[in-house]
Design goal:
α2 crosses α9, α7 crosses α8 and α10 crosses α17. This protein is about 30% helix and about 25% strand. It is of the alpha+beta class and about 700 residues long. A 6-stranded antiparallel β-sheet has the order 7-12-8-9-10-11, with helices on one face. Strands 18, 19, 20, 21, 22 and 23 form a 6-stranded mixed β-sheet that branches. It has a 6-stranded antiparallel β-sheet with strand order 24-29-25-26-27-28, with helices on both faces. The protein has 17 helices and 34 strands. Among the domains are: about 90 residues; about 80 residues, Alpha-Beta Complex (Cathepsin B, Chain A); about 110 residues, D-amino Acid Aminotransferase, Chain A, domain 1 (2-Layer Sandwich); about 100 residues, 3-Layer(aba) Sandwich (Rossmann fold). The radius of gyration is 28 Å and the shape is globular. It starts with a strand and ends in a 6-residue tail after the last helix. InterPro entries: YheC/D. This is YheC/YheD family protein. It comes from Paenibacillus soyae.
Length: about 700
């Protein structure tokens, strides 16, 4: 396989740092990949010419345009060369830019899980810059000015007010300004490039050095996010930034945490990793093209509050180039294989049959898509699936995939009669254009995208006279004192994100006689009461919820939960699609859907027989189905009927009492049951087509 490596100008040895270049060459050999380095001057309509490294030397080479190109140093649209823009449409780039700091802050502020990480921020406008700056100085003792699109700490200024004068400190100078001098300096900065202003957060080591944590995350050979390295960056005492390029240094994470955060050291590394991954996943979902890697900068102040500083594409990695290269090459290979599966095919036109279009992400379960295509055919309907970027709103067509002769073919299709929304990103700014373009077409799913907060669901169920019985005692993790009392009352508690989860970022807590046992699904920790209080302070107000632990275990003492998937049928009635028991085969891993858990999926009929000596239609089966249908119907009412499928995770304690763990409305899988789900999804989608047609028919004249 050949992968292109593109920079707009210069040979690879001139534009790529020696360590990174060497790591890329070595890793490509390990993964059986040929790298062809080229720049604008080597691009033609027939292909590219450039350099390859083989047998210890550089040689000239020409080739058809590679399927995938690692585009080094990507530029915003206004700075892209004509060749760069042409390449974007002719091949697949691995790297895509994100917005400046201010826009990224706004995206995070729009997400309940991350809003608390973002400090107050204003973007300085030319005519109002000094007024905005002084207004923030009135609220905060010190502020920081940053270039909105700056990198490596360049251009950052710390500003403080003292006795009518202004103390200005940047990487080169420490100056005292009058108000007039300050206004002139600020105007000159803002006229050159956009700036933002924020309060200065004192995140300092014990020696008074500024520091932050760089969380370097990348997509790997499966297209999934993973952490490449987490490390602290420490600036000079009295300095403004901690970037290595500005005179700072790196240290090993474990040593730094033991030195600076001895009470929290066992947890902070894992906490930073998980937070970095969650931010990366969220930010990537905000953009049409997938991001390949990010350097996410976080810090922790004296009160142990976490702050998000910024996220950078193409982050530096001078001390872990080999680890970075391994994932970068693997991800490029992944994209190349994916592109081959989407080869161009002839065009297609609309027939008279009803057409169902499935809006899907790149992670869609293809077995379910194929099941939908088969069921649609049984109902005399046509079916295709498409991604958001495939919608051409100007010309009202979709570049979709249609199943023909046993394979998915790329076709240009008119808009469908109904959209089966498996993507579920309504309300995300980066995808709103898709929903607007297709707004005249009925959608199967009308909820806003993202995970719903667990407290909302629990609160709704608590308001129902019967369903309140399945709600596990819970508490939002806001106040350490309340949380400590909750643990002391229930003795065994589980902490999980209030939104999302899928088995991630879950911590088990057990109160013992003299201490607390914590298990983060990887390591076991024992904390003294004062250490436990420090732990609670770290998680308080960070978007977590605690629940009493429910002993949902088999007779063999294996933890389990029941996934109950419900969907609306063609008559708009809720139906149980399937009940799937999931077991953890590790006694220590109580979270059955965590990635570290050796998980077993059993058949419901087998599980009923082995655990309850019952069959379908008997007491336990009836109880689960009746409760799930009641919950789905009630929750659907609370959501104004805007969803057509719900997944409930239910536990069963030793007295056979049912408890609701979670309710999922958006990211719902159909593992092992794709055809059963399709048998309901397609008739429901077609019912929306018929309803839409009836609504458009003129009323009969009297």
């Amino acid at each position: 396989m050949q992968i292109g490596v593109y920079h707009r100008q210069g040979s690879p040895t001139d534009v790529i740092a020696a360590g990174r270049l060497q790591a890329m060459i070595e890793e490509s050999a390990k993964q059986g990949v040929q790298l062809l380095f080229f720049h604008d001057g080597g691009v033609s309509e027939h292909g590219v010419s450039g350099l390859r490294f083989a047998n210890g030397e550089w040689t000239e080479a020409s080739s058809p345009l590679p399927e995938v190109v690692m585009n080094l140093s990507p530029l915003p649209p206004g700075q892209q060369s004509r060749t760069y823009r042409e390449l974007m449409y002719r091949t697949v780039f691995t790297t895509h830019l994100i917005h400046g700091k201010h826009a990224v802050y706004q995206k995070l502020l729009a997400a309940p899980d991350f809003a608390h990480l973002v400090m107050p921020v204003k973007r300085l406008a030319n005519s109002l810059a000094i007024g905005q700056l002084l207004a923030m100085l009135d609220e905060h003792d010190e502020i920081v000015l940053k270039p909105d699109f700056g990198r490596q700490g360049a251009g950052i200024v710390r500003l403080a007010k003292s006795k009518g004068l202004y103390q200005w400190q940047d990487a080169e100078d420490a100056i005292v300004f009058t108000a007039e001098q300050l206004e002139r300096r600020v105007r000159s900065l803002v006229e050159a490039e956009p700036y933002i202003v924020q309060p200065y957060q004192r995140c300092l080591t014990r020696l008074g050095e500024p520091f932050d944590f760089r969380v370097h995350v990348q997509r790997d050979g499966t297209g999934q996010w993973s952490v490449t390295r987490v490390y602290p960056r420490i600036g000079v005492e009295g300095g403004v930034v901690s970037n290595v390029s500005a005179g700072g240094r790196q240290e090993e994470l474990e040593f730094f945490l033991r030195t600076e955060f001895p009470d929290n050291a066992p947890f902070l590394g894992l906490y930073l990793e998980r937070l970095g991954l969650r931010i990366a996943e969220y930010l990537s979902d905000c953009y049409e093209n997938p991001l390949d890697e990010l350097g996410i900068d976080l810090s922790i102040d004296a009160s142990r509050r976490t702050w998000f500083y910024e996220a950078n594409t193409s982050p530096a990695s001078s001390r872990h180039e080999s680890a970075r290269a391994a994932k970068a090459i693997a991800y490029a290979k992944y994209l190349a294989l994916e592109e081959r599966s989407l080869a161009d095919e002839p065009l297609q036109t609309k027939s008279d049959a009803p057409v169902i279009g499935m809006l899907a992400g790149t992670d869609i379960d293809m077995s379910f898509v194929e099941a939908c295509a088969s069921v649609a055919k049984l109902y005399g309907a046509e079916f295709f699936y498409f991604h958001p970027k495939n919608v051409n709103a100007e010309n009202h067509y979709i570049r979709a995939r249609v199943f023909e002769n046993g394979a998915w073919k790329k076709r240009t299709c008119p808009y469908p009669d109904v959209v089966f929304d498996k993507f579920k990103r309504r309300g995300f700014p980066e995808y709103e254009y898709v929903y607007e373009a297709l707004s005249s077409i009925p959608f199967t799913h009308g909820l806003q995208g993202g995970s719903m907060r667990k407290e909302f669901v629990y609160g709704w169920l608590e308001s129902h006279s019967l369903l309140r019985q399945i709600v596990i005692p819970y508490l939002p993790v806001e106040k350490p004192s309340e949380m400590a009392a909750f643990v002391d009352t229930h003795l065994r508690v589980i902490i999980k994100p209030a939104q999302g989860s899928f088995g991630q970022s879950i911590i088990m807590i057990r109160k013992r006689e003299d201490d607390y046992e914590l298990f983060d699904q990887k390591f076991l920790h024992y904390l003294k009461p004062d250490e436990f209080q420090a732990f609670l302070r770290m998680f308080a107000g960070r978007g977590y919820v605690a629940q009493r632990y429910v002993y949902s275990t088999t007779k063999e003492d294996y933890p389990f939960h029941l996934r109950v998937h419900l969907m609306k049928n063609g008559a708009g009635e809720w139906v149980v699609v399937f009940i799937q028991p999931f077991l953890s085969l590790s006694y220590i891993h109580q979270v059955t859907n965590h990635e570290n858990t050796l998980r077993l999926a059993s058949k419901w009929i087998w599980f009923l027989s082995s655990q309850y000596q019952e069959e379908l239609g008997m007491e336990m089966d009836r109880k689960v189905r009746t409760t799930a249908l009641m919950a789905a119907s009630y929750l659907s009412t609370k959501l104004s009927g805007a969803c057509h499928e719900i997944a409930l995770d239910i536990g069963v304690d030793q007295s056979r009492k049912l408890w609701l763990f979670e309710a999922n409305f958006n990211k719902i899988g159909n593992t092992f049951h794709g055809f059963e789900a399709a048998r309901l999804a397609i008739p429901y989608a077609l019912s929306l087509v018929n309803r839409n047609l009836k609504a458009k028919q003129p009323l009969a004249q009297p």
